[in-house]
Fold Cyclopropane-fatty-acyl-phospholipid synthase family protein.
Amino acid sequence: MTGAATRLVGVAEKLLGAPLPVQIRAWDGSQAGPPGTPVVVLHNRRALRRLLFKPGELGLGRAWVSGDLGLEGDLYTALQAIAGLIWEREDGEGGGVLHALRDPGVRAAIGELIKLAGPPLPPPRPPEEVRRSRHLHTRRSDKRAISHHYDVGNDFYELVLGPSMVYSCAYWSEDGTLETAQRDKLELVCTKLGLREGQRLLDVGCGWGSMALHAAREHGVHVVGVTLSQEQATYARKRVAEAGLTDRIEIRVQDYRDVADGPYDAISSIGMAEHVGAQSYLEYARDLYALLRPGGKLLNHQIARRPLIDESEYQLDGFIDAYVFPDGELAPIGTTVTQLERAGFEVRDVESLREHYALTLRRWVVNLEAQWDLAVRLAGPGRARVWRLYMAASALAFEGNELGLNQVLAVRTPDGGMSGLPLRPRTWHG
């Protein structure tokens, strides 16, 4: 009798209309496909049922997170091959596989897959998946979304991020380490903001306190850091106390919309604005504008996506929304600049760090894989698999120019019209 893998490869190539770029190893131990390519391992029939009941990215993600599906070989090579099968074949009619169902031969092939998959019952969703029907971006829903992602456990994040505890794009030199690259990023932000002794800095989405600590220690500023994550705040306060900087740094569990003790001389928002949402972004920009003194500066460090011909067609990434950043929305850099300027800001500099984020993500994957058993003990196998997949896939997206990372320097320019920035701002002096 023909092994399940051979049958799966035959059906897959019929569906795709092209040779399969990966090998398949099935639950019965059979293996088929082009030698020397990555191996997609279906540990059980449930993996196939997940892909059948939710074709595309979300079904693949569920199979991966649950441990029903695995990959052997280089992770990045495997993801690139799978991207060609799933993401790059999607169209406005629901994806290449669904579109192909119009063909009678394809329908027959799907029927064979259903027989291979076993009883036609949809497997339960992995417990790591977030379930909700609407993206509200209320204070309550935003707090829930932030808790889902950031309250995984500080020990787990220490393992992935390393000693810097900075969870955003680093700023790399040719031969730097992750720790020096993150330090250089924090210094770049401080320098762009022109921080000086005695000034007030608001750090929106302060994480585990790394930006606040660097700014207070190296530039003598007074910092208020706000986060919606109780675990982050507890960790950051401990670091502040150990550094002897409680007189200069205050860490709050607070929504940025509830900050009311301005004016501030500068605001840093590093990797936070992706959580705001398109409908709330102008409010976000106006709130930060109102918290700055005239002449105050905002450094907005944010992931961007490529623009669409019809922006109304934008949809949240299924896997990321369900497992990683619930309610996270990305906008093109042009949209972000426009919204900041609509709020009253004068945008003075935009710098792309796209390749820097790819390097950062790859280093985080190395950290995770090097201590995999500990990561599983700390966060559970499903959560560890989520982080490994999303970080590796994101690295490829930054390398392929599907995603970008930009630092936008904006000023609340005084009524007199002079920004106070140097004539040659890229020197970052003055």
